[in-house]
Specification:
The complex is a heterodimer of chains A (449) and B (178). Chain A folds into three domains: 5-79, no CATH class; 85-242, Sandwich (Jelly Rolls); 249-447, Galactose-binding domain-like (Jelly Rolls). Helix content of chain A is 18%, strand content 37%. Chain A has helices at residues 5-15, 21-33, 35-55, 59-70, 78-98, 397-400; strands at 103-115, 127-129, 133-145, 150-163, 166-178, 187-189, 194-197, 200-206, 212-218, 220-224, 231-235, 239-242, 249-255, 284-289, 292-293, 322-323, 330-349, 365-371, 390-396, 412-419, 425-434, 440-447. In chain A, α1 packs across α3 (35-55), α2 crosses α3 and α4 (59-70) runs antiparallel to α5. The longest helix of chain A has 21 residues, at 35-55. Chain A is globular, with a radius of gyration of 26 Å. Chain A starts with a helix and ends with a strand. Residues 57-99 of chain A have low confidence and may be disordered. Chain B has 178 residues and is mainly alpha-helical. Chain B has two domains: 1-105, Rna Polymerase Sigma Factor, Chain: A; 120-178, Arc Repressor Mutant, subunit A (Orthogonal Bundle), CATH 1.10.10. Chain B is built from eight helices and no strands. The longest helix of chain B has 29 residues, at 149-177. Classes of the chains: A alpha+beta (449), B mainly alpha (178). At the A-B interface, α1, α2, α3, α4 and α5 of A face α1, α2, α4, α5 and α6 of B.
């Protein structure tokens, strides 16, 4: 670094979030006057931002760091721990300095692959090492881990191998089969969560903006959103979305039993116990955008969404709230006061009485927003980040159920949106920006106890 | 996925991966914590992807990406980091221009950083690993180590300085021998 020690110290304090206001002003003044300091500042920031990625590859050391935390009070053990630390550091340094990380997997199958880095052209059987980033822009690649785990990648996907039983999926989709003894506990991390295999098969996808989807096809998978949050056990046939961002929002969508009881594997049935129920008298629903439709000779009744029950039969327009075909709109719920919300469930049911594959209005597609203030911003402004609306979650049940043919779509569906820890947020107004012709039967909003 | 969408995804990935590290460094330089920078990078990637089809000329991707990142930093600051210190417009623009011009191959930079990390004194590399592996705050490490936050900060600062110098030298050496 060519800049003075004092200046660089200010840079360090700034990037540690420890700088004083005066120090900050001085740093800004110095940088505006000195382009070399600007360059050094950027180089320092780049080192800082790249270090966390690099360090997480040195699994052995980071595991040890965690271990020392629990043993800190055992002062008598300190000399032994110090010795272990020295050995671990030596091992870690050796791994780094030899620049030959552990070979943990091999390419087992490659089909019509195109790689982002065109100089990277692996062949069948080629080794894959810890820390290696596999950037597949098109095609299909199967990775066989030494533990027996299989990871199938479909382009475009970016996956990093983190260890002998762990990968990080930055983008795209991966299917994991980890049913051998050694591969149990195989972990797939995404930008928003960590999926830990419990002897099973599952698939994960990550959208470019970090929205992750997990689906379990065999056995069980533990979803760990953050280390100190509750884990969520997902079983065969279950799937979940995890929104990116520091406040982790989960979306679970399930198909129901097709009866008026609206029973789902884990999502509760429509209820009168939620705070939005009309029996509580506090909530109202309107449609600020779009034209609501209903059965002939009736006018639309938004209160069907807060009457504590879903539709009584499979094709019941008068018990549903829905928009004109192809011209969707939005639903605005005013809870009457700002409420700490734990969970929001929405329910739909549509199956034409005669035409088996006509169940298009079961599809739930919306973006849910919230606002805590007294007067809600315009519903038209939801796409504007300055509007005041906070995006809570995105729901597209057709995408979730991977609907390719009409019959793939379950006729009765429930969607549950909740936070991985604590509340979803504190809101008075909820706005559903509806992007599907859904027959909504009920919406339940649960308060944090 | 339709072919046109695959092609678009493909082009996006190529361009994004190419400037990702520079972008990350730039975003990091404007925000006080790694956690903040991570969130803004995610928002930036989302916006870039959403608006990718509006980009007229792919040659302008890098410049456009830096513009979006800059805007996202400002939006983040407005929404979440009001109370924190952040630079003014003029310096942010200057930093964006400087970062945008850095043409370092991120793969080489990561490789160099790895080998430089191994050259640090063991105590320093252990501390760096501890700090970055779990995104620990200096105060937390200090408590764990039974030392003052200032002494921890100084070690980390010295380590980062040494790493920045070592990476620069390594890359320069590579360039001259290439």
């Amino acid at each position: 670094m060519k800049s003075s020690g004092k200046q660089m110290e200010r840079v360090g304090l700034y990037l540690s979030g420890e700088i004083s206001k005066e120090g900050m002003l001085q740093l800004e003044k110095d940088m505006l006057a000195d382009s070399q300091l600007c360059k050094d500042f950027i180089a320092y920031a780049r080192i800082d931002s790249t270090l966390s990625a690099i360090v997480s590859e040195t699994t052995s050391l980071s595991e040890f760091v965690q271990e020392t935390k629990t043993k800190k009070s055992l002062i008598l053990w300190m000399p032994a721990i110090a010795a272990i630390l020295a050995v671990m550091i030596w091992i870690s340094s050796f791994t780094l300095s030899t620049e030959k990380p552990l070979q943990v997997a091999r390419f087992d199958h490659l089909d019509d692959c195109r790689w982002i880095n065109q100089q990277f052209r692996p062949g069948l059987g080629d080794p894959i090492r810890t820390g290696q980033r596999i950037e597949l822009s098109k095609g299909y690649a199967k990775l066989r881990f030494n533990t027996g785990a299989l990871v199938e990648l479909t382009g475009p996907s970016i996956l990093e191998v983190k260890g002998e039983n762990a990968v990080f999926l930055t983008l795209g989709s991966a299917e994991v089969l980890a049913d051998s003894m050694e591969s149990q506990g195989f972990t797939l991390e995404t930008p928003s969560s960590r999926f830990v295999d419990l002897g099973t098969a599952f698939s994960a996808t990550v959208a470019p903006d970090g929205l992750s989807r997990l689906e379990v096809s065999q056995g069980k998978v533990n979803l760990v959103v953050e280390d100190d949050h509750d884990t969520h056990l997902l079983q065969k046939g279950e799937a979940i979305f995890v929104e990116p961002g520091s406040h982790k929002i989960l979306t679970r969508i399930e198909s129901g039993d097709g009866t008026e009881q609206f029973q789902f594997p884990t999502i509760s049935s429509p209820s009168k116990d939620d705070i939005a129920d009309q029996s509580k008298g506090g909530a109202t629903i309107t449609a600020p955008q779009g034209k609501l439709r209903t059965a002939r000779s009736l006018s639309p009744n938004p209160n069907v969404l807060i009457d504590g029950r879903g539709q009584s039969k499979q094709d019941s327009p008068r018990e549903s709230l829905f928009f004109e075909n192809g011209r969707y709109g939005s639903l605005l719920m005013d809870l009457g006061r700002a409420v700490s919300i734990r969970k929001i469930n929405s329910y739909s049911w549509h199956q034409h009485n005669r035409i088996e594959d006509h169940r298009v209005r079961a599809h739930q597609g919306y973006v849910l927003y919230g606002f805590a203030g007294e007067t809600p911003p315009s519903a038209e402004a939801v796409g504007d980040p300055d509007s005041g609306w906070v995006r809570i979650a995105r729901v597209n049940s057709d995408q979730f159920f991977q609907v390719h043919q009409k019959l793939d779509r379950p006729a009765q569906q429930a969607c549950s949106i909740f936070a991985s820890k604590g509340e979803l947020g504190k809101y008075r107004y909820l706005l559903w920006d509806v992007k599907a012709p859904t027959f909504f039967g009920e919406i339940d909003v649960y308060e944090t106890p | 996925m339709p072919t046109s969408q695959i092609d678009s995804h493909d082009s996006f990935l190529r361009l994004y991966v190419d400037c990702e590290e520079s972008l990350r460094g730039f975003v990091r330089s404007l925000l006080p914590t790694i956690e903040d920078a991570r969130e803004v990078m995610q928002n930036t990637a989302a916006v870039l992807w959403r608006k990718f089809d509006q980009l007229d000329d792919l040659k302008n991707f890098r410049r456009w990406a830096f513009g979006v990142a800059r805007f996202e930093v400002l939006a983040y600051r407005r929404d979440k980091a009001r109370d924190r210190h952040i630079f003014g417009e003029e310096l942010i623009t200057q930093l964006a221009l400087e970062s945008e011009e850095i043409g370092i191959d991120s793969g080489h930079e990561i490789k160099a950083l790895k080998s430089c990390l191994a050259k640090l004194p063991p105590k320093h590399s252990a501390l760096v690993c501890e700090a970055y592996a779990k995104d620990l705050k200096i105060k937390e490490i200090a408590e764990r180590e039974g030392r003052t936050p200032m002494s921890i900060y100084k070690i980390l600062h010295r380590a980062r300085m040494a790493l920045a110098d070592c990476v620069r030298d390594t890359l320069e050496k590579e360039r001259t021998t290439a």
